[in-house]
Amino acid sequence: THANSLNPIIDFQSFGSYQLILQADNGCFQSADTINVLVNSIPLLSIPADTLLCNGASFNWNLNAQQGSAPYTFSWQVQGGPIMPGGNIQLNNLNADQQVFVYLSDDVGCLDSGSFWLRVSNITSQIASPAPVCYNDSTQLNAQISGGSGSLSFRWIGPDVGYLSDTTVLN
To answer: How far apart are the first and last CA of the chain?
Structure first.
C-alpha cells in the first residue's frame, strides 16, 4: 500500500509511539483526523538450552520474560500433552526424550514462544552368547553398549569375575 490508500497496511519496524494523520480533501472542504499508535516491544521468553538428563531424573524450570508489558502469562506443554498454565515447569521420573513447548503472552497480547529438548541418556548393554566351552579352554566374551552420551565407564562384576583376564575390557 502507499500514502494514498484509504486502508493502508503499515509495517512498523521498531516499537514506540507513532502519530498518523488522515487528511481528506474534495476541493471544497478539508477534513483531518489523527490517531496515535503505540507499538509495543515484543516480550522475550527466556528458554533453557537443550538439557541432557540421566534416566529417572527430574527437571524444574521457572519461565521468565524480558521486555514486553508485564504482567506476563506463561504456559507450557510436553509434546503431545495438555497445555499447562503457569511458568513453573516440573517434570519427574523422565525416561525418554521430551520436547517442551513454552508460550508467553504479555499484558497487551504480544506473544513469544519457543521449545527445548530434554534428552534422557539411556544406555543398553548386551552380551553375545559364547561358543560352547570345554574344561580348561578359554573363550572371548563379546559385549556391546549403546546409547547415552559423554564418557562411559563399565566393568564386569559378579562372583565369577576372577576367571576374566581383565574386568575393565569390554571384549
So the answer is: 72
pTM of this structure: 0.68
Over the range 138-156, which residues count as b (16 or more CB within 10 Å of their CB) and which as e? eeeeeeeeeeeeeeeeeeb
171 residues of the chain, pLDDT tens digit each: 676 788 888 888 888 998 988 888 888 998 999 999 989 999 999 999 999 998 899 999 999 999 999 999 999 999 999 999 999 999 999 999 999 999 999 999 999 999 999 999 877 788 887 788 888 888 887 888 877 666 777 777 887 877 777 777 765
3-state secondary structure 23-65: EEECCCCEEEEEEEEEECCCCEEECCCCEEEECCEEEEEECEE
Helix (H, G, I), strand (E, B) or coil at 163: helix
**SS3 of residue 161 by DSSP:** helix
Cβ atoms within 10 Å of 103's Cβ, excluding its own: 19
Give the Cα separation of 8 and 2 in Å (integer): 6
For residue 32, what are the contacts with CB-CB under 8 A and spacing of at least 6? 21, 22, 23, 24
Find out whether 86 and 105 touch, Cβ atoms under 8 Å: no
